[in-house]
Batch of 2 targets.
Target 1
Amino acid sequence: MTQAELHDFAQDWVKCGEAVTKARDLVGLSRADLAREAGMEPEQLRKIESGGAHKGFEKVRKVLEDKGVVFLDLLTAEVKLK
């Protein structure tokens, strides 16, 4: 993977993290509450939201989708409620 590809990959995870933060705000959950519901520590969720980690992303996404969040485009951090 080239340096440019690595940069693009990292930027994609930053946008995914932004989408999680927006979605969490839409449903009115604190970071601690969402982390608990997703079965992780708040620090891990903070890393996901900052784009520094992707482990656990799918668990978080599932919790948010179950609460009515629709992830329209992860690469632009576009989300809405059903």
Target 2
Amino acid sequence: MLPVFESHHALGILSGRGTYVNVGLFGGELRAPLAVLALRQLTIKGSFVPSETRELIEFFRAVTIKSIPISTAPISQLNEGLALLCAGKIHGRQKAVYDAH
């Protein structure tokens, strides 16, 4: 896990009035621009024990969640992929695959 989970990754995929839920003490931090929270009416919730697991499961069953897009790129282009990731140009996840020879 990264020591800092940038808010544009987590909060950027939430719809308006969405809720970000963090369960567990995994370390790191969440940076959130306050204007984005207010303008998009986002909610941040957290719990250090999974006692709310049942409530979370019921919540996720009740809402429609879009799956995270996953693209693939050859491992030979790993450096380019990391540069795109750092520039915020990769939406979702990118999986490195071995080049076929």
